[in-house]
Amino acid sequence: MKAENLKLIVQEKYGQIAQNSSTRGKSSCCSTSGCCAESEYSMIGDGYINLEGYNPDADLGLGCGIPTQFASIKKGDSVLDLGSGAGNDCFVARAIVGETGSVTGLDFTEAMVARAKENNKKIGFTNVEFVQGDIEDMPLQGNQFDVVVSNCVLNLVPDKTKAFAQIMRVLKPGGHFCVSDVVIKGELPEKLRQDAEMYVGCVSGAIGMEQYLAIIAGQGFQNITVHKQNVIAIPKEVLEKYLSKQEIELFKTGDTGIYSITVSGSKL
């Protein structure tokens, strides 16, 4: 599948999620594809509930970590959230930067941007804005952000080299990024990769962890640190849809795994 087609699939699926007025759990990546373990899903939800700035209306359950916890955001910082969705991480970041800072959310899907703006209108923040745009070609000026964050989004971007090159471009000298994302260890069975629903559900868009970190280093980032990694279990019923019993057994007993990681890097 071409990158353009994958982008259209992602845009269409997340547009549907943005327009869905049902509860968080019913619109999450975990429920659309079954890729996320229930324990991981619950842990992320509980973590957000305890954070200042958390807004349940803006939490669609699409994340795989809490990047703001490791992002070293300070009061007065200018923060960019890539794939900002309904605005959840933006509002958490706003609680940290305060009135003297600023937060920008960038999302590929028009309906998501509209929903985030609606949520922000209810709150009344004047230093939080949401912009529609492509992470591979951000409609933003260079050297303007202190911190870039992202939550389970870059794995959905076809060209991750372009994505991290853009992150490097928009960061100020001395700035840094911190992203939570999905990566693979070992070789994911091809049948899982071929399903577009799995792609939007945060599995098939993922690449190998070593390759992911190499892309980051290749763009010139320094002090690259993996702060956290958790296994994402694929439910038995999902594996049975794609694999034979023998293949499932090999998958479970082998070195292959899907992980959520939170990683940061700095621009000199």
Structure summarized in a few sentences:
By secondary structure, the protein is α/β, with parallel strands linked by helices. The chain has helices spanning 3-19, 24-27, 29-33, 38-49, 88-97, 110-123, 160-170, 190-193, 196-200, 209-218, 236-242, 245-253; strands at residues 78-82, 102-107, 128-132, 145-151, 171-185, 222-231, 257-266.
Which characteristics define this entry?
single chain, 268 residues, Rossmann fold, 22% strand, globular
Q: Care to describe what's here?
A:
The chain has one domain (3-261): 3-Layer(aba) Sandwich (Rossmann fold). It contains 12 helices and 7 strands. It has helices at residues 3-19, 24-27, 29-33, 38-49, 88-97, 110-123, 160-170, 190-193, 196-200, 209-218, 236-242, 245-253; strands at residues 78-82, 102-107, 128-132, 145-151, 171-185, 222-231, 257-266. It has a 7-stranded mixed beta sheet, sandwiched between helices. α6 links the parallel β2 (102-107) and β3. α1 (3-19) packs parallel to α6 and α7 packs across α10 (209-218). It is globular and about 60 Å long. 47% of the residues are buried.
